[in-house]
């Protein structure tokens, strides 16, 4: 394993220990709402602090973009993009579907990725140019050829309803033209599932950088494609993301096209 990835894994496992311990007594947590339906607890903060401390010890001059602690030194050559607990709503309900997502961007390029599921102890990792792995096993996207036969993941809007109508239009077509849709509730884990070939594709509107950075690299290293709703780059910035095996990717882009408002097109 690349030495930088080893440190990222160490950081993710430390966060996992904090989250697992807290999951034993979720009733004791102080829940705060950042905006409508956007919850955060001391666990999110403690997990992020542990990740940043681990990485800062090893790399004092690196920058950080963390969901809970914001941006530090983001013009550095090396910037870590961190979601310490992706799927907080699931976590708060005791639903064991959440993860830790950590990615490294070097001179603007994603180079290292970790998505760690502390419930199943599933560790998804990738290093640019070296493939994607689940624990010690190499993973690849699926080779399903038709959207009609595909299992597709998604995320439903739940706090920002700007694009609700467009989303529902997409959803309706996907319901009719796929083998099934899933909405487990942790975007980074959803993307890891595309990399593992468990889903054939995934799409969601308006995710944040920390939701998609690690999962995006995992998929590319597993032979899949990641794009915005027109199949272009820019998904990391806009958070409008389509990801799939190459054949299903093209069919998803085609299906989404009639539903794109000006705001949802490539910028
Ligand atoms: C959320 C989850 C969810 C997605 C939301 C994200 P959080 O992240 O990934 O699946 O639909 O858009 O914000 O807030 O639990 O880290
Ligand atoms: Ca959040
Ligand atoms: Ca998230
Ligand atoms: Ca989070």
From TrEMBL:
InterPro entries with a match to the protein in the record: IMPase, Inositol_monoP_metal-BS, Inositol_monophosphatase-like, Inositol_monophosphatase_CS, Inositol_monophosphatase_SuhB
Cofactor entry: Mg(2+)
UniProt: Mg(2+) binding residues: 67, 83, 85-86, 211
Top-level enzyme category: hydrolase
Similarity annotation: Belongs to the inositol monophosphatase superfamily.
One Gene Ontology biological process: inositol metabolic process
Reactions mediated catalytically: a myo-inositol phosphate + H2O = myo-inositol + phosphate
Keyword set includes Metal-binding: yes
EC numbers on record: 3.1.3.25
MF terms in GO: inositol monophosphate 1-phosphatase activity; metal ion binding
PANTHER family, per the entry: INOSITOL MONOPHOSPHATASE (PTHR20854), INOSITOL-1-MONOPHOSPHATASE-RELATED (PTHR20854:SF4)
Top-level division of the source organism's lineage: Bacteria
Pfam family of the protein (one): Inositol_P
Keyword presence, Metal-binding: yes
Protein name: Inositol-1-monophosphatase
Keyword line: Hydrolase, Magnesium, Metal-binding
